[in-house]
Amino acid sequence: MCSRQRSGNEDEPLDTEFWRAKQQEVAQHGQRLLAIACKQVPEHKRDLGLGDVEQDMTMLGLIGIIDPPREEAIRAIAECRSAGIKVQMITGDYAPTARAIAGELGVDTGQEPLTGKEIETMNDGEFQRRAPHVEVFARSNPSHKIRLVKALQASRQIVR
Questions:
Q1: Which of 57, 83, 93, 99 could form a disulfide with 2 if both were Cys (CB 3.0 to 4.6 A apart)?
Q2: Domains and CATH numbers, the chain
Q3: Per-residue confidence in pLDDT tens, the chain, 160 aa
Q4: In 8-51, where do the E strands start and end?
Q5: Would you say 81 and 88 are in contact if contact means Cβ atoms under 8 Å apart?
Q6: From its phi and psi, is residue 123 left (phi > 0), alpha (psi between -120 and 50) or beta?
């Protein structure tokens, strides 16, 4: 959505690689990201729609938001695992953020999260075979969550 970035009082072409590296850096600490951008609009414009902000924005910065897992959630996951219950995490978070949070919760064993985009490329059989072995699902939407439950149930898993 951004084609420029602000540096001091000047705008310059967007350094995409710089911002992607910053995004990764913040996400790997388990922080959720907000990008802050702006756009000049004609003075006479009184109403803004989504089309007005879909392109030619100027990137101002990133904000990382810390939302640490609750202690009771960490304890509950540990209890489940000690009882032999497999715990999987499915979230809408960006994959590096999801992985960091899963690590804090004691869910992640080091494998890369499976993303919603990847789920969409799999047919039902392929997803059913893969789903039981994935611990973290990232960038998921409600339809991915329903598909996961169905895949696990089709594999004779009990899902709660």
A1: 57
A2: 2-65 (3.40.1110.10), 71-154 (3.40.50.1000)
A3: 999 999 988 999 999 999 999 998 888 888 888 999 999 888 888 888 888 888 999 999 999 988 888 999 999 999 999 999 999 999 999 898 899 899 999 997 788 999 999 999 999 999 999 999 999 999 999 999 999 999 999 988 888 7
A4: 10-13, 32-38
A5: no
A6: beta
CA-wise closest residue to 63 among 39, 36, 89: 36
| Direct distance between the N- and C-terminal alpha carbons of the chain, in angstroms, rounded to an integer | 39
Burial class (CB in 10 A: 0-12, 13-18, 19+), 67: exposed
Question: How does DSSP assign 113-147, residue by residue?
Answer: PEEHHHHHHS-HHHHHHHGGG-SEEES--HHHHHH
C-beta of residue 37 within 8 angstroms of C-beta of residue 1: yes
Helices (H) and strands (E) in the chain, counts: 6, 7
Calpha distance 18→23 (Å, rounded): 9
